Amino acid sequence: MRKYDIRAADILLALVLLTRLPLPHLPKAAFARQSTAVWAFPFAGLAVALPACLLASLALSLGLPPMVAAGLALAVQILLTGAMHEDGLADTADGFWGGFDKARRLEIMKDSQIGTYGVLALILGLGLRWGALATLLQTLGPSPLLALAALSRASMPVLMHSLPNARQAGLSHGVGRPGKMPVILGAGIALVISMPLLGPVAMLCAAVTMLAATLGLAALARAKIGGQTGDILGATQQICEIAGLMVLLAL
Questions:
Q1: Are 95 and 225 a contacting pair, CB within 8 Å?
Q2: Interatomic CA distance for residues 55 and 227, integer angstroms
Q3: How many other C-beta atoms are found inside a 10 Å radius of the C-beta of residue 112?
Q4: Smallest Cα–Cα separation from 229: which of 64, 111, 115, 72?
Q5: Pure H helices in the chain
Q6: What span, in angstroms and rounded, lies between the C-alpha atoms of 69 and 88?
Q7: What is the rounded CA–CA span in Å between residue 142 and residue 205?
Q8: Rounded to the nearest 5°, which phi and psi values hold at 165?
Q9: What are phi and psi of 200, to 5 degrees?
Q10: Does pLDDT of 231 surpass 70?
Q11: DSSP assignment letter at 228
Q12: Are 144 and 198 in contact (CB under 8 A)?
């Protein structure tokens, strides 16, 4: 495979990896490009956020309160992703703070049961997203959802490139470690998508904050488990989305 071998079909592969949308069956050979296809992750974010935006707009037009519209938008995103990012956040919280060494932390993260740290992470994460989104719907409308969905998905390849895989199995290991070009291209696409939706100042502030959050989580993951896993990537998306929402609220 060439270093800069970018294909439009990577978008479909990114949708398969990051959503639960009904999609055509891909041949097994297509999955050999998983590490290259990370440049298309922002498009997966758009595919999830666009229906959420449409439903939130409809709810507001019918006179429903912003809190209800925000809840419906979050429900659509959770449904279309199979809650994989929320699951990653919960497993990361349980593993990082429920274990005392790398092996035990990885074991906890792989366990299908959820612990106290995971429950609290879900409550706080969903609560912050819900409250922030409800406030933004009153001032900016639902369009920031599209920008944040793209930017937060573009943060995941940054972490994938920055850290080795912590275990020799799992979704993240199967995808592989992407090179610089797909990571940079994905970030560029997310910025181009976000610019008209947020404006240059808000877009830059949100992007810088998300980058800081990604690098901070990368440093924590390196210290706790020596690398990254699929759960860490899911947590990255959630934390970056929350960080972006907080920045937009502050602005």
A1: yes
A2: 38
A3: 6
A4: 111
A5: 9-18, 41-61, 66-81, 84-98, 102-110, 116-139, 144-162, 171-175, 180-198, 200-225, 230-250
A6: 25
A7: 19
A8: -75, 140
A9: -65, -40
A10: yes
A11: B
A12: yes
Are 219 and 230 in contact by the 8 Å Cβ rule? The answer is: no
pLDDT tens-digit series, residues 112-157:
899 999 999 999 999 999 999 999 999 999 999 999 999 999 999 9
Owner of token pair 């992407």: 178
**How large is the C-alpha radius of gyration of the chain?**
17
The band of 174, judged by pLDDT with boundaries at 50, 70 and 90, is low
User: Does the pLDDT at position 1 exceed 70?
Assistant: no
Judged by DSSP in three states, 80 sits in helix
Residues in contact with 46: Cβ distance below 8 Å, sequence separation at least 6, in sequence order: 146, 149, 150, 193
- Measured CA to CA, the distance from residue 106 to residue 85 in angstroms comes to 17
Which two tokens mark 127? 């609560």
Q: What type of residue is 203?
A: M
